[in-house]
């Protein structure tokens, strides 16, 4: 099979601020494999957790390096491809882009969308949350109003907390958002590791009193030893994101969290996302799917697995001004994969943009 790599830049409608910084645009990597006249598409978006950020350049360079080794293989030889990626030490974002392209190719060859090929029911897909970044109360309220103007059918919100200004700023933002959208009862918070244990405990009670549904990544990656205390004392369920990359990370977390956040960039693609799903369920944990600065291509790919998730946070493509792809539809607050073969993504027509 032949592999092509192309870069594209996307700009956010609303810049997103989390505890680690602010993002207004990213340059993502579009991967195309071609074999027997069929193309499979994949994507990677840069992200940074810990000391080794997966930049656009790192991801693209690793894919270009492995391209010559793929020429002798078929997209159906996924075990061989996976072994080759691991031997070449591809970063997870690069593995994800190629793995997604392989799945897309297989679905197109079978002439079936992946969700149907896997026997899933789209009716089981839950609403996706819309993310409100860290902001002063007035700006947070305006963001909610802006989103309601753009997607009036939204049913769930996720609030980024862990403000450098402290817990009072976090609390003020929560109250402002709830005042701006009193009809939305599904609200969760994500601290992105921005709290210490004592702060997380204090906020868990305060948030529970205000109807918040769960807390995501309250403590920094590397402080998983403090999670048991929070797990046993918090009145709210605890989910982890940055603390969980692959299926190997899940068993040690099973006695100290209630659920995990699976992202394609962290897991290395749909293949490992499947493993994480089954491992988490076997450990009695809940499942959520999340995203980074992903276009419609990536979010449509993970949407193929969405009937198996308890919570969804797949809103990044809805916040893009110049997404080059069209994929899953947004209906009644839900991101729904289509009936086109494979992932079901096409390039956006320039005429349609106007």
UniProtKB/TrEMBL annotation:
Report the superkingdom from the record. Bacteria
Task: Supply the enzyme class, top level.
Answer: isomerase
Q: Which cofactor does it need?
A: Mg(2+)
Q: Is-annotated flag, keyword Transport?
A: no
Enzyme Commission no: 5.1.1.-
Matching Pfam families, A to Z? Answer: MR_MLE_C, MR_MLE_N
User: Which note does the record give on the cofactor?
Assistant: Binds 1 Mg(2+) ion per subunit.
CDD domains with a match to the protein in the record: L-Ala-DL-Glu_epimerase
Among InterPro entries, the record links this protein to: DgoD-like, Dipeptide_epimerase, Enolase-like_C_sf, Enolase-like_N, Enolase_C-like, Mandelate_racemase_C, Mandelate_racemase_N_dom
Which family does the similarity line name? Belongs to the mandelate racemase/muconate lactonizing enzyme family.
What is the name attached to this protein's record?
Dipeptide epimerase
Supply the source organism for this entry: Stenomitos frigidus AS-A4
